[in-house]
Amino acid sequence: MSTPSIANNAYQMAAKLQQQARSLDETASERQSVDFGQMVQEAVETVVDQGREADRKAVGMIEGKTDVVDVVTAVAETEVALETMVTVRDRVISAYEEIMRMPI
């Protein structure tokens, strides 16, 4: 596992999210509201899929079909995605709590 590969994967994820945000902006003009729940569900499914891929590679390593470097890279990618998801969750909760503290 190397830092450039993790950084490259993080950059690719950020670019993908930016592209999705642009497509959401384009479709937002067509419809009045963006389905936040669906967006969160897709993000969670992406993290789960990465976890499953890491599991498949770990099993492949046990069977002797996958290289250790591939397994470590997949686990690191999953860890980064999960940490990102947790950070976003914490920010959403913090924003909600701040809104609830606002006087009416």
Number of helices: 3
Secondary-structure-based class equals: mainly alpha
Distance between the termini: 51 Å
List the uncertain runs.
none
How large is the radius of gyration?
18 Å
- Report the count of strand segments: 0
On the 0 to 100 scale, the average pLDDT is 82
Tell me the count of domains.
Answer: 1
Helix percentage: over 70%
Give the SSE order as H and E letters: HHH
In percent, how much strand structure appears in the residues?
under 5%
The backbone outline, from C-alpha atoms, is elongated
Biggest β-sheet description:
none
Commentary on this structure:
This protein is mainly alpha-helical and 104 residues long. The protein has one domain. It is 87% helix and 0% strand. It contains three helices and no strands. Helix 1 crosses helix 3 (68-101) and helix 2 packs antiparallel against helix 3. The longest helix has 34 residues, at 68-101. The protein is elongated. The mean pLDDT is 82. Keywords: Bacterial flagellum, Cell projection, Cilium, Flagellum. This is Flagellar hook-basal body complex protein FliE. One of its GO terms (molecular function) is cytoskeletal motor activity. It comes from Roseibium aggregatum. It is found in: Bacterial flagellum basal body.
